[in-house]
Write a structure and sequence with these properties.
Helices cover 58% and strands 2% of the residues. The protein is mainly alpha-helical and 195 residues long. α1 packs across α2. It has three domains: 89 residues, no CATH class; 44 residues; 51 residues, no CATH class.
Amino acid sequence: MAKVNKDIVPIAIVNDVQAITEYMKTGGNSVLLSEEQKNLLERIDFTDNLIRKYKNNSEIVSILCVRFSVSRKTAYKTIQATQEVYGSTATISKEYWRKITIDWIIDAINLARTSKDVKGLNAALANLIKALGLDKADTIDIDLTKYESHKYVINLPETTQKMINKMVQKGNVNLADMFPDNITDITAIQDGSGE
């Protein structure tokens, strides 16, 4: 079981994979790993590199069995734990696989460049563009509340209000023609205080 650093608020850790995930997320600041968990972390880190290099799990399992002297069952569990740990630290599993795919695409680009394979390079670049989402327009989240029409209040002294009212009553001025169409409420302020 993982030991929680006394300087950090304790967290509920159910298993070794959760302890390692928390350890990776915090850079080792919140959880102290046991020797067994450190060994598992070493296998998980090594397995992550293998997943990036090999596409076939059976190849990865064979390498893990030889490298760490573990059973095939343990090797498969290590692959699963690796996907869980790196999927959790990369927010979701899809993001983890996206990163691995991008690594493979970059390897394909480098291979195509060194072998001067123009078709292969173009195909790899097209895949990279898709994987990075560069083929889609950027979506911009606009806060429409910032663009709502404003309501203006014009505070006039009481004497000016009386003068305007007299002009309107005599027919000298038609205020309806002076205001834009979008003004819906015109109320007179009687006390002259500005409120």
